Amino acid sequence: MVYERELSHFMDQLRSEANISVIDSVQTIASIASVKFLELDKERYSLPDELSLGAILKEGAFLAEKVKAVLNEIEAHVPFLKGVYEFSDLFGRLSNNTLYHLLSRIHSFAFTKEQWKQWIESLFVYAGNMAGVEGVELITPAGVNELGIRLLNMEGGEFYDGASGLSGTLCAASEYARRHHCEVALYGQEINQRAWALGKLRLLFHDRTDAHLAKGDTLTEPAFVEGNKLKKFDYIMMNFPFGMRINSYEQLMNDRYDRFVYGRLPRTSADMAFILHALSSLKENGKAVLVVTNGTLFRGGLEAVIREHLLAADLIESVIALPSSLLDGAAIQINLLVLNKNKSAEREGNILFINAENYYGERRRGRRYLRQEDIDRIVAIYHEGLEIDEVSKFVSVREIEEANLLSNRYLQSSEWTIEPYGKVKFYPDHIKNLPCVQPLKRIGTFYRGINISAKDAETENGPYKVIKLSDVQNGEVLIDQLASYEITNNAKIESYLVQEGDVIISVRGAGIKIAVIPPHEGDILISHNFIGIRPHRHVDPFYLKIFLESPVGQYLLLSKQAGTNVTILNMKDLENIPIPVRPFEEQKEIIMSYLEEQKHIQDMMKQFEKQRLESSLKLYEKMGIRSTFTLMQS
């Protein structure tokens, strides 16, 4: 980065001088720099000579007061900046010497407008790399902004971001419009006062004081309305806060703008509220790109109902899975959800899924980013409608299962790392064509685990023992170490009881544990982290376990996992896993042969271990140290 050393010096000086946060440092530096930048447009805003860094520096003393006075005067001359400098009391926390050095250095910059734009972008990127910018929602990476804007393929019109944050997306839209010689009006809204102010300063350096950037809550108080209706836009891109709880639920459910007609909103997450707000803000031929997590694409309940209605209306054009760890300070995977009210004829009734999880570069400390070639490749696949094995595919809306929009549901990689085998390549068509294949639900009865609550006390002599994740090790249930519980609400307790020969599968977490319930006494339950399968009489439980532990079984299980922070295996997905079911006697024969061979290998390993030990003892005898110790073996 061209300006990184200079910015690093500024940041270090401010933090050591006043111990101010990263965001305060950005506010301080950007505010001072804005005075210098505006000197390039003195005539445009009728700015007198005394509203300059040079005039401030001539005074020498009481610099903080002079800087605040100049900023207040600038707000009076530049309406776009009204309220932006409300945080100017930060200058009072700096010594006169530090402030003088900062003013002098920025005053010495002889930048063009283009250079100032590059400088301000470097400031925001540098600050984001340092701390994710404290007090503000995560910054949308520059590569994600460029990708989203290029997917919109703007040709002039009005662009809107209802969760504008630090205005990075608005600035990316402005830059696209400049490069493609089209006129794009900018609109944005941000609820965080500090982010709004910094966003305005950022737009100033992009020479976009014509942008409309409002303060306030986009969901409860949308700023851009025309009469009793929302203003409509040609293009929208938003990276809204993920999983935010809806506090004004009743207000939204009685929305005067009628935004939420596609289904009832959940209280626990505002994701769908933002998506439907964006959809309601689109013109009849408009397009939106929304940054969403995996959970937004597959969670059930009310969100699934909304997705079903969006699918029925054929409003979803594409879902693009991006790499995990793109966002500073978060390892979650994000996706781009593309909504289009005016799909082309050849795309009607279809959704283009793109798996770009492996399209990234890495910077220091494992930070991932979209390289230019990654962006170009994704844009080409989207605009040209390319179908590439394991990367992109058109899926009919009718084929979407349970309104699940995760790309890996329809685009599965054929190469997986399976322990202990390493990297394995699979052939899905061969798996489907295995003889005597049946879905798992046809060869066994499924049951869920119990969710132990705080009221259910762990006691030494409780009537029920519960199998937790830690109780399954190396494919076996450690029956003797199970904790006992007093279950308060045991009305349906029978449905959670295991029987000898049941197969249990863990359904939460990256590693999948599988075990067969051994002979036991007393009542044993499985926890909510497991799903139990009671195989039918023609299925040997150990045969089923060994298949699910095989590379093919692990591939079938792992490819169905989904989740944002914790991966989850859905029961319906588990029920439909294909199992090659051989005749029962053949299953028994296969298992007996396998177990005998495993026992033979274990016996050989014990013999080899005994020989290794004897060899070591002979060595110690020759070294003359054998008489100094005795092996205390039983």
* CA-CA gap between termini: 67 Å
Which structural category do the helix and sheet elements fall into? Answer: alpha+beta
Reported for the largest beta sheet, the result is: 9 strands, mixed
> What's the tally of helices?
20
Q: Tell how many strands the DSSP assignment holds.
A: 27
Q: What is the spatial order of strands in the main beta sheet? A: 3-2-1-6-7-9-8-10-13
Helix content range:
25-40%
Q: Tell me the strand percentage band.
A: 15-25%
Instruction: Give the mean pLDDT.
Output: 91
Principal-axis shape? globular
Unreliable residue stretches: none
Structure overview:
It is a single chain. With 634 residues, the protein is α+β, with helices and mostly antiparallel strands. Helices cover 37% and strands 19% of the residues. A 9-stranded mixed β-sheet has the order 3-2-1-6-7-9-8-10-13, sandwiched between helices. Helix 1 (4-18) crosses helix 2 (22-38) and helix 2 (22-38) packs across helix 6 (96-107).
Task: Please describe the topology of this protein.
Blueprint: H1 4-18, H2 22-38, H3 42-45, H4 53-59, H5 63-77, H6 96-107, H7 113-131, H8 142-152, E1 157-161, H9 168-179, E2 184-190, H10 193-205, E3 212-215, E4 225-226, E5 229-230, E6 233-238, H11 249-253, H12 271-280, E7 282-293, H13 294-298, H14 302-312, E8 316-324, E9 333-340, E10 350-355, E11 361-362, E12 368-369, H15 372-384, E13 392-396, E14 415-418, E15 422-425, H16 428-432, E16 437-439, E17 444-448, E18 457-458, E19 464-467, E20 472-473, E21 476-477, E22 483-486, E23 503-506, E24 514-516, E25 523-526, E26 530-535, H17 541-549, H18 551-558, H19 571-575, E27 578-580, H20 584-623
